[in-house]
């Protein structure tokens, strides 16, 4: 299993970074994992800004030479793991900018003239590992599951990725937030996952 981890947090002393490290540790100890690549969007200085003008047309985004490396990573990966905090009920703007630029027409999906496109990334699986200050049920009870709807339906299903698992850890700024238990849960999950 070839696994790409996309990490989005500006601070390497954050809890999100600890979740990244436990994810990597679990994957490295998993006999089903062939190779792991990590894309740290902040460390990479990924440019999340969409630019369309006379030189950069939207219909050519899938061929943008600046993004070749990142397209190759997505094509290579069988499993994609997103590690990020939930800010204001959604992933960080940096990750959303990555999605805007990378999940382009004729790369991630192809219009067929009907209501739904053909997803070109089908067969891949995704795991989203996210942390938030608010309680775990906050996105469900207050925001109608906006985060999961955004990631699962508006993005991943649209590009053909049907198998998506979420870990949404709430109350992470509390002293009794059970951070170590949750970190261990992530480690054990990735150590044993088979596909």
Task: Please indicate the percent range of residues in DSSP E strands (runs of 2 or more).
Answer: 15-25%
Shape type: globular
What is the H/E order?
A: EHEHEHEEEHHEH
- The helix count comes to 6
| Number of β-strand runs | 7
Please estimate the helix content: 25-40%
The biggest beta sheet, please?
A: 5 strands, parallel
Kindly, what is the distance between the CA atoms of the first and last residues, rounded to a whole number of angstroms?
7 Å
- Largest sheet strand order: 2-1-3-6-7
Unreliably modeled segments: none
The mean pLDDT is 90
* Rg, Cα atoms, Å: 17 Å
Provide an overview of this structure.
It is a single chain. A hairpin with a 7-residue loop joins strand 4 and strand 5 (118-119). The N and C termini lie close together (7 Å). The chain is globular, with a radius of gyration of 17 Å. With 195 residues, it is α/β, with parallel strands linked by helices. The protein has a five-stranded parallel sheet with strand order 2-1-3-6-7, with helices on both faces. Strands 4-5 form a two-stranded antiparallel ribbon. The protein contains six helices and seven strands, in the order βαβαβαβββααβα.
